[in-house]
Amino acid sequence: PRRLNCLIPSPDGYLVPIRWPRSRDEVWTANIPHTHLASEKSDQRWMVVNGDKINFPGGGTHFHYGADKYIVNLAQMLGFPNDKLNNEGNIRNVLDVGCGVASFGAYLLPLDIIAMSLAPNDVHENQIQFALERGIPSTLGVLGTRRLPYPSRSFELAHCSRCRIDWLQRDGILLLEVDRVLRPGGYFVYSSPEAYAHHDPVNRKIWKQMSNLAQRMCWRIASKEGQTVIWVKPLTNGCYMRREPRALPPMCGHDDDPDAAWNVLMKACITPYSKRS
Question: pTM above the 0.70 mark?
Answer without folding.
Answer: yes
